[in-house]
Each structure stands twice: as structure tokens, then as C-alpha cells.
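Example record used in the benchmark description.
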Amino acid sequence: MSYWCCYKYFTMSVCYRHGLAFSAWVLSYSQELRGELSFLM
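Model output (C-alpha cells):
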């Protein structure tokens, strides 16, 4: 039982970290895109 809880917690933390990294990447990418668009306008 405790093993399953540890496994679930580990997967959740990994997914959470990856989600944070992905959202940060999307944020920086959209900012770059916006900068390029304003540069082209």
C-alpha cells in the first residue's frame, strides 16, 4: 500500500514538474513570438 502511494506521489510530482516546465516554455515562446510580430508590424 505504501509503495503504491509513493509511486502515485512520484508520478504526480514528475507530471507537475513537467507541466511547470512546459507552461514556462510556452510562456517564453509566446513572448518571443509576440516580439517578432511587433517587430514585423
